[in-house]
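Key idea: predict the complex, not the pieces.
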Amino acid sequence: MTKQQVWLLVIGTCLVFVIWLLEFNMGKIQEEVTKTGTTETRSMLLNIGPSHPAMHGIVRIVAELDGETIVGADVEIGYLHRAFEKMCETGPYNNAIPYTDRLNYVSPLINNVGYCMAVEKLLGIEVTERCKYIRVIMSEISRISDHLTCIGASAMELGAFTVFLYMIKAREYLWELIEKVTGARLTISYTRVGGVKGDLPQQFKEDTAAAFKQTREVLKECDQLLTRNRIFVDRMKDVGVISKEDAISYGVTGPFLRSTGIDYDVRKAQPYLVYDRIDFDIPVGENGDNLDRYMVRMEEMEQSMRIVEKALERLPGGSILVDDQGHEMPAAFMVDEAKMGRTAGFKERIVRMDPTLEGSSGSHHPAVNAPEKKVVLPAKEDTYGNIEGLMDHFKLVMVGHGIRPPKGEAYFPVEGANGELGFYVVSDGSDRPYRVRVRPPCFPIMAALSKILVGDMMADMVPTFGSVNMIGGELDR
Amino acid sequence: MNLSELLTQKFPHDVLATHRYRGDDTVILKKERLLEAARVLKEDPALDFNFLMDLTCVDYLVFEKSPSTAPSTATPSPLPFFMKPKSDPKGEIWERPEGAQTRFEVIYHFYSLSKNHRLRLKVPVEEKSPEVASLTSLWASADWFEREVWDMYGIVFKGHPNLKRILLYEEFIGHPLRKDYPVNKRQPLIGPVN
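Result:
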């Protein structure tokens, strides 16, 4: 035998031994399995977030998986906590308004309105008719942009990227409208306690009509792309189901609650502003699944547009320029006419100019602000033009002065895009709110999320979470 | 009969005070009977509060003593005579009732879907033993709301299944919405290196 043959023999024997060892052990394992009757199985923990593209904002979900089925979910929030409530206590009442913008950064106008109305309730004052209509119009435009974002993002996560782009395009039309009114797109800080910053600009009605026309086209396109799309419907239907009882017990409100078939909407149940005078419908679903939530949101956008159109029709306050026939006319034309001395035919109406960013100018200031000297800043013409206006202004803006509601407390709910948005304000008679509490609409929904997810597949987590429309700003405050 | 009268009838010895301010019905209740009263609120057909809309807390430590934002020593700085409200626009006066002026008040906002009414329930809590019964057995929404109040105010909810911090991290020391927690205090989780 050569050396090589010896080596081959040794290696061969070793291999046989190893194979025998393996088989022996396998047999032992087999024996154990037959003894206990089961293999050891463990569910897998999957950590999603806090920073993950499908988790809009920052939230962490620790899912317990059995294969692909979710058997448990732990939702962890708080990554965006910015001490909103504590900061509100440190400054005057109007200082909290920019903070409220950043609560729900997709529909900040509704937050503005909610906070101001809570303080106004505490003060016991009421805003003017025109201001009420303006607040309704702006809130509804925000609601549409919120729903567009929510549906667009959920559709994108299911692969419909086109829909996302279309909806963001439509949101752009609305944000342009908002920009024309408030001067900003996102952090708008439009309302003030006792009124709004400025009146609606000229041509607003026409601009809105044009923007809504384009938005409707987009919605029609998206509806065709999604509503009867087999892939989309299969992913959404019977997924993320919540029962009526659970939804009520968890305090879920808004489109999420309405998808289960309960028609609770603060705008109808306890109308504020002018919602009781405007005719609109509340869409409800049946199954409480993702598809119903999508349907409810799609229909709500149409209803919101209806509300805005009706409110614009009825907008009171004599702010349009009209000739003796009652026809609207542009300001430049009116100036030209007046230069030639042809003023006799003009009706006695308040002339409206574009709102300035410093505040509303004198002519339309009383139309959009409550006649409360101790609450509302005077028109800029008065501040710069006469001593009473100047004193009035400084008594409101100087530190230690400002708005001082009497001792008391008030809770004011408005219908946010995600549900009931409540502000609870306590005053101790000083110039700062003693306590500001926000009831964020997506907080209870996120609490219910761990229950909703259980039983669904791993891949269903994304559309379900998308339909919650979690907004980190208001959830974590 | 309004809501607060109904509740007073059921718990004559435990309702400390009731009032209606700016259209909000409020009942102030002893904390010992909170769970029973909550059960009545939920199950009585005349009340039928199926929603616990909101749950929060107020720390009354510096109520009416909070310093003005003005840098002067006179706090709060007085309002000039021509801006002083002559009277309340609605003729209502709000006072904290005698005998219920504890440091904390846990505040519940209930809503009834069928009756479409709201009620605010306030429970005074002493500073020495900040404990209240948990309502998690009646409303699932109490779970996270109570965790938040524990996080922010350090009120212990007895019977809560999972009372841990929700918005802040476990290592956080103190309860930041208490009035004696300085607003500019910092507790970075990751400290400076050395």
